[in-house]
Here is the input.
Amino acid sequence: MTTTKALHTEEFLVNMGPHHPSTHGVCRFLLTMDGEVVVKAVPYIGYLHRALEKICENRTYPQCLPILDRFEYCTSMSCEYAFCLATEKLAGIQAPERAEYLRVIMLELNRIASHLIWFGTTSLDLGAITPFLYGFREREDILDLFEMTCGQRLTYNYIRIGGVSRDVPPEFIPKAKEFLDKFPAKIEDYVKLLNENPIWMIRNQNVGILPREMALSYGVSGPVLRASGIKFDIRKDDPYSIYDRFDFNIPTGKVGDCYDRYLLRIEEMRQSSRIVRQALEQLPSGEIKTKVSANFKPPKGEVYSRIENSRGEMGIYIQSPGDSKKPLRVKMRGGSYNHLQVMPEIVKGGKIADLVAVMASMDIIMPEVDR
Amino acid sequence: MDRTELTKYLLDRFSDKLQLLDTGKAEPVFILKAENLLEFCRTIKADDTLAIDFLCNIAAVDTGDLFEIVYSVASTKNRIRFDFKITMPYENAEIDSIQEFWAGANWHEREVWELFGINIRNHGNLTRFLLPDDWNQGFPMRKNWDAPDFVRMPEL
Amino acid sequence: MGLIKEVPIYLEKFPGGGILTTSLDYVLSQSRASSIWYLLFGTACCAIELMATGASRYDFDRLGMIFRASPRQSDLIIAAGTITKKMAPRLRLLYDQMAEPRYVIAMGGCTIKGGPFYYDSYSVEKGIDHIIPVDVYIPGCPPRPESLLEGCLTLQKKVKKQKLADWS
Here is the structure.
């Protein structure tokens, strides 16, 4: 009968990134590992810090919009809209009805496109390549709609202060309805591929559980907060634009693990399609932009306005000096900033492969963190 | 509660510490004195009518004469949102950390220190994270900052 | 690899050996150009267009290009996205790790001269061609997938013109 002596073990440091296929941008983690188990994870950011806030201080208000486009490029329409909402609150401008409906249509289509990017990259991180191709195929249809309207596929510069820049062409509405008619069947394809898949379930269930109190304390918002059981959506609880005219549900999770977050975003895609369908039916005719003077100078004041982005709460704080065409300070707040801050707490004790799953499911994107 | 009720409640509760900035815009903005910060945060978090459990944003502003730090807070239960700010002069700009109430304040305060140079007491981890590790050119978001390779857009 | 460089020296001694050398040039550079594997490197917005070009509608695989995760296994870096001063040494490190022959495509305005962040930004590296040598520049913000495919075809033309004598 032999006895085994205890093995001498020690912890070691592993550097993950900044260039790594699954770090959603450029983010570096310094991991203290005990074998395969993560003892401590420290994120290092700043590899994409482009000083957007300093740039906005030397641009007039309309000139800030292309810069805001690049703040969170997967949902450019939301970033532009957040800035326009803040500026319109500051100056007391009201956009016309048709413009508000067009804005909602674009925002929700952009939310679907962003969730499709999330779907593709998450599956790619966890080893499944087919959902990446499926997701991007659907996204191309949405980008066709955007290109038809404003000419760009990624950074649109479409939502302007006081309305939108162009009206939709006549073929937009039939093409959008065609997309909405075939999209639910595609979502069913994705669900059939992944929901009951044993590998997907083992890699995602009970991984990266975020407790409710920690979520609120760290300022986590959006789908990640709702997956932890708190039913809070800015579109319903602090409504902006005309969201109170549409009928949609807010899905909530129970456990707060990666699988809940996945199911929640699939359901959000369905709800967004519902909103777009209702908005297309109710679309009135009329003006698309309130006239804003070429020397637009909002009065002195400050405002913080927030919207529900696909990655959480997106907030823009603007302080205006009163007699100038340029803002004094523009601060951008993205959901991923707080999500990355809470990540080290929830990956402690898990395996390194689970860190990849958690980062993918929280849908962290580095330009929101670094600006 | 809507804007007027909220303003009345806060001004009644904290009459000597808060002052309303009359901006007339959607959410009220208050001015708070720096020494009352921790007490104020503790009270608004514990109070049942307010139940402020969500810190949205901490923004630092360089107005040309003073520094201002603007805190935007909200409540997920009671549908409340308001801002409050603290002003301080340029010399020895310091503020307390509020991460004991809302842990998400940690990185926001670290960024305020790194880009503006405002010291945060009791933070515990004031190290560089957005700028390169060997950055030695000062605090870039200040209005009077300049560097040799910093190109300003010309006025058209 | 050394043997293949000796072959032309021996071949040319025979009558008609020169034809065999140029045919060898042609075959080798054709096969090289049809199978350029690129490193999955993207920092900002152009990375999304890079992924979209590699996806269903505009397919990179029909040009023989697939993504590799490690610089040691790739021939091409498509530098997609803004490079900041903090990221620049890492880009140089990635480039140094690639085996020759290696190529660089600068995709998007940010990598050419700083793009929309040229003015008023304190942390953006204004262009990457003083960090690594660039072969093809693709302008745009972000460039359309068709532009990126055109850039890759231009790179293929450049590779096909290379001769055995250039290989070091």
